[in-house]
Amino acid sequence: MAYCKVEFNAGYTVISNELMRDRRLSLKAKGLQALVLSLPPDWDMTIEGLSAICLECSDTISSILKELEAAGYLSRYRERNSSGRFGQMQYTFFQKPLHNKPVRKLPDRKKSGQVKPGQDNSGQLSKEKSTKEESNKDFSDILSINQRDKMDEMRIYKAVIYQNIDYETLREQVDSQRLDEIVEIMLECICSSSEVLTIGRTTVSKELVKSRFLKINSSHIEYILECLDRNTTKVRNIKSYLMTTLYNAPATINSYYTAEVNHDLYGTD
Fold first, then answer.
1. What average pLDDT is seen over the chain?
2. How many CB atoms lie within 10 A of CB 212?
3. For 128-139, what is the mean pLDDT?
4. Against a cut of 0.70, is the pTM above it?
5. What DSSP assignment string belongs to the chain?
6. Which of 77, 174, 183, 225 is exposed most, by the fewest CB atoms within 10 A?
7. Are 241 and 247 spatial neighbours (Cβ–Cβ below 8 Å)?
8. CB contact at 8 A, 65 and 47
9. Tens digit of each residue's pLDDT (9 = 90 or more) over 188-203
10. What is the pLDDT of residue 91?
C-alpha cells in the first residue's frame, strides 16, 4: 500500500477538503482555485494577471473561472463608477461553494396505489385521492426537472457564446449593455423551443439559426455594432433587426470590409 506524507513548512496555504474533493471540478479548476487562495489579499486580480503566472492562456483561464463560478466557488460582478459606467471586475473566491443543491429524484410510481387480489378494498376512495395527489406531485416534479434542464441548457450555451466572442475582453472595448443585449438575443434564439424562427421576413429553421449564431466571434460582434452606429434609418423593431444582422453576419462581414477597403483606396468615385 502506498502512503502519502505531507510536510508543512513556513509559507503554505490551507485549502478546504471540500474543495479538493469536489468531483464536479476538474483538476485545472482545483489548481487555479488553490493558486488564487495562495495570493495576497491585495493582489490585482485579472484574467491576464493569472495567465501571466500560469502556463495557460487567457481563454483557458476564463473557461476555468466559469467552471468555478458555475460550481459556486466564485462570485463576480462589475462595479459602476460615479458616472454610471462599468468599472473593474470584482472577484470573490470561496473555500466552500455558495450553492450545492442535490438533484431531486422522481418518486417511485410502481409502489403507489397497488392492490393485491383478495385484499380488502376499504378506503379505496382515500387511496384514489392519494394516488391523484401523488400524480399531481409527479407532474409538478417533472415540470421542475424540465425547467432545470432548460436553465442548464441556457447556462451551457451562454458559456459557449462567451467563449466564442471572448466576452470578458470584448466588453472592455465596446458598450457592455449593448453587448449583453446581443448575447441575450443569441441565447434566446439558440434555446428556443420553436422549430422555426422568423429572420427578417423569412421563416428559417431553428437549427440553421443556431448553427449560424454559434459561428459568431468577437469580430462579428464589432461588425454588428459598427453597422448599428452607421445606420441612419429609424429601426422600429430593434430585436428583429439584430436577429437579422446576427444571422447574416458570418456571410456578409468579408464583403462589408472589402467594400470599406475599396472605398478608402479609390474614394466614392
1. 75
2. 21
3. 57
4. no
5. ---------SS-----HHHHT-TTS-HHHHHHHHHHHHS-TT----HHHHHHTSSS-HHHHHHHHHHHHHHTSEEEEEEE-TTS-EEEEEEEE-SS-S--PPPPPPP-GGGSS---TT---TTHHHHHHHHHHHHHHHHHHHHHHHHHHHHHHHHHHHHHHHHHHTHHHHTTTS-HHHHHHHHHHHHHHHT-SSSEEEETTEEEEHHHHHHHHTT--HHHHHHHHHHHHH--S--S-HHHHHHHHHHHHHHHHHHHHHHHHHHHHH---
6. 77
7. no
8. yes
9. 999 888 899 998 888 9
10. 82
Collect all residues with Cβ–Cβ distance below 8 Å to 28 and sequence separation of at least 6: 56, 60, 64
Q: Give the per-residue pLDDT at 30.
A: 92
- For residues 245 and 67, what is the distance between their CA atoms, to the nearest angstrom? 31
Grid coordinates of 252: 456578409
Whose cell is 472595448? That residue is: 173
| pLDDT tens column, 65-114 | 999 988 888 888 777 666 666 667 788 888 888 765 443 444 444 444 44
